[in-house]
Input
Amino acid sequence: MSVLVVGSTALDSIKTPKASHPRLLGGSASHAAVAASFFGPVRLVGVVGRDFPKRYLELYRRHGIDLAGLQIRDGQTFHWAGEYEVNMNRRRTLATELGVFETFSPELPAAYRPSPFVLLANIAPALQLHVLDQMRRPRFVAADTMDLWLNIAMKDLLRLLKRIDLLVLNDSEAHQLTQDDNVIHALARLHKLGPKYVIIKKGEHGSILGGPQGRFIAPAYPLSKVVDPTGAGDSFVGGLMGYLASARGSIDANLRRAMVYGSVTASFCCEGFGLKKTDTTTRADIEKRVKELAQLTKF
Amino acid sequence: MSVLVVGSTALDSIKTPKASHPRLLGGSASHAAVAASFFGPVRLVGVVGRDFPKRYLELYRRHGIDLAGLQIRDGQTFHWAGEYEVNMNRRRTLATELGVFETFSPELPAAYRPSPFVLLANIAPALQLHVLDQMRRPRFVAADTMDLWLNIAMKDLLRLLKRIDLLVLNDSEAHQLTQDDNVIHALARLHKLGPKYVIIKKGEHGSILGGPQGRFIAPAYPLSKVVDPTGAGDSFVGGLMGYLASARGSIDANLRRAMVYGSVTASFCCEGFGLKKTDTTTRADIEKRVKELAQLTKF
Output
């Protein structure tokens, strides 16, 4: 089944202690859509400017991503520039140029409205809500968020939480939102805000799911080299939703494996700048690492 | 089979934002020995002063711990006082009074020398080496350490690493020792220093094993409440060694489960001040959490 992905589509200029890569394909929706595309059809909703390189449109298409919902507007594509420290655990933003993203309103083509699986990748909660207003009874809605929205759009975010099935956020955001450092308490508090399923991401330490079937501790695939972690979280939730949409059976029966697939898809993302490594990854590469992770955690 | 445990036997005065508990039973060997005692016979080597409360000797005995190697000397028992911050992730030392520990030399009763499993809990590497000098061809030797020894006794520690089978240390110590932030690289470098097996502990994020059979990602048991994490690392390696010594079959066949048992034993340690919770824990409690952890990580 199709996954509808809405979020940011951007150009990222990324510096690390060893390299500098200007204007890579980036944005939450780009990473999530390509990650989801390993498992089945994906529909993208986003906006880019006239400067958006053709090769990136081709990249989306090569991954079978439906671009009917991608607006191409007069103006510049959203551009983010950031720099990572030596151990890749901290980054600082060097520049944020919103361009056409500043006035973006996600409008769904008619064909997108019945999409059964909806991924509201990181973007302003008001825009995530606007997407839901246009949907026809989706089967499963997941949303990602970031600290920025906790700081400036909490009211919209709280409204959103009542309308989604799965919230995905990282541990620092979970602590900020719940005012509780303990992951078990944080999960309980987040469920009370609405979502039946909550996943707290812990980067290289994996992630933890809370849901009606109990908790699940998902491992991260251990990498010997992290080249660029930008988009890893988006790839995680993209891979997760792609797998869920492709799997037969109930959400409850598939969600654990979906997290493992998300984790593995994110591991490839970290091994190259922007989408470079993900772009050349195959489904067979993913299956191989999923098997490895099963072996790495078996006892 | 018996596990020989050598390390510190101390009185710990522990403050948290909510409580203050003076002169609890503490020390690396106390935590490790009680943790190992759930699985089989334990022999303790340590030193205490005349002030050491009788109730703590009774606690050791209640857990079937052989005290033939516990020296009782004129003077004060090693006393450590520390304070935890709100989230329990950081602690600071308020006082360290070495007492009889200052001149401690671990001397093994003749009956201890053929012990097949040896746990060199955290103590100066020179003393850990002195224990090995007295052993008769042990089957499996594990050693724990701490940042202090990396700072002041590196030469002894490097000598020790060539004589042990398993090194257990936490992630910050692994990074300090190898000068590498990446856990896969750190494992590889630590193996090169001697030990066939290396476990890097990551606190609430679990631990990772490197060994001839490959790596194993061990989960931590998720706790909704951490009362006092003092001794959790010692309980982990104590439970691990206790399980290993009790299990039939090869080290390689048992080490993964041993880590899970260690992890669960450590979870109980964190739920009470000092050894209070561990003391009232049963083997059945441990088995229950091991089953839960299997369920929490299955996919």
User: Anything to note?
Assistant: Chain B touches chain A at residues 86-87, 181-185, 202, 204-206, 208, 214-219, 222-226, 256-257, 259-260, 294-299 (CB under 8 Å). Chain B has one domain: 3-297.
